[in-house]
Structures are given as C-alpha cells and as structure tokens.
Design brief:
homodimer; about 110 residues; alpha+beta; Alpha-Beta Plaits; 4-stranded antiparallel beta sheet; 3 helices; 4 strands; about 35% helix; globular
C-alpha cells in the first residue's frame, strides 16, 4: 500500500536491489523487519515493489531515527544476510522529502 | 537496473501507485516516457519496480529540472492518461538525496 506519511519534511530511505536466484527465506525476514521497524521511534511507513529489481522505500521522521534503526542488532543481522544471500548489488539513498501530493480516483 | 547517479546532493521523485485492472497500453507509454526523460536537461536516471504496487523513482540534478520535466507537454498528456486509465491512486514525493552508498558482490 501507499504509506500514509505526514506533511513534509520527513526522510526517505530508498533501497534499490538486484537479486540473487532463489528466495533463501527472504519473505520471512522481510515480514519480520517490517514488524520490527513499525516499533521504532520515528518510523512513518514503508512501500515495497519487486520484479526485475526491488525497490523498498521506508519513511522516517528524521536522520536520528534512521541512524537508530541502522544500529538495531536484528536489523544488522538481516543486512548481513542480505549481502550473503539475497542481493548481488544494491544502492541505498537517504533523502529529505520536501514536498508531496497525491491522487485518488473517486 | 540501479541508476548510476552522481555524488549527492541531487533530487529524487518517488512515485508510488496503485493500479487499475488491465494494461491499457501502459507499457508503450512508460517506454516512451523513459526515452523522453533521458533527453531532458538534468535527468540522472530512473528505477522502476511493480507487483502489488508500482514504485518509480527518477533522479534529477535539481528542482528546476524536475519542474521543466513536469511542464513537458507529452509528459503532461501521459499524466492525464495516468489519472484516467492506469492509476486508482498514487503519491508523488520530491526529495533531496543527501547521501548514498552501495554494495556489489565480487
């Protein structure tokens, strides 16, 4: 679903990935990470889509909350597994959302 | 593919969408828009993934180049078709990329 984020400014972490073959229990980890992220102070939402590449965008109140999430030990383990099992390459971009607008069909 | 963007800062336009049923010639338009965007001054790259939702992130040198692209007449027509044909809802976020890092498996 589209994340229901507050009025900007807030932060986006854009994670773009190229995948290895096979699932390697990715689904279980991804589900767990979303549950864990929701409990973090400053977490605002997450959006994810995947076909040839994967794009996951998570939204955060500020850089401090992103930093704390990066230091979460379970998240660290998941990222290590990502490098070992799931991704052949990825790029992470930290960006400050300055404006947004949306559309909903009546 | 993962866009090969320059050293930050630069801008990201994060476009998250929920789709109507059917293709309605979306593929042809999407291909045309990427070709057209590549010709725009300030365009840095684009990444796109889709399954339950669609996420397209395009990267731009600055707000001015995003504004010019938004004013492109063919792009305007495509956006109108998007509202009519392809999307039941979407959200667009304009964000300034402040930092990035990547990983490539050897």
């Amino acid at each position: 679903m589209i994340a229901e984020t507050p009025t900007p400014p807030y932060y986006a972490v854009i994670f773009t990935s190229i995948w290895t073959e096979g699932d390697n229990n990715y689904g279980d980890m991804a589900e767990r990470m979303v549950l864990l992220a929701r409990d973090q102070d400053g977490f605002l939402g997450v959006e994810s889509a995947r076909n040839e590449i994967g794009i996951t965008v998570s939204y955060w109140r500020d850089l401090e909350s992103i930093k704390k999430w990066k230091e979460n030990s379970e998240h660290k383990t998941a990222r290590e597994n990502g490098r070992k099992l799931w991704y052949t390459s990825f790029k992470t971009r930290i960006a400050k959302v300055e404006s947004d607008y949306d559309f909903h069909k009546l």
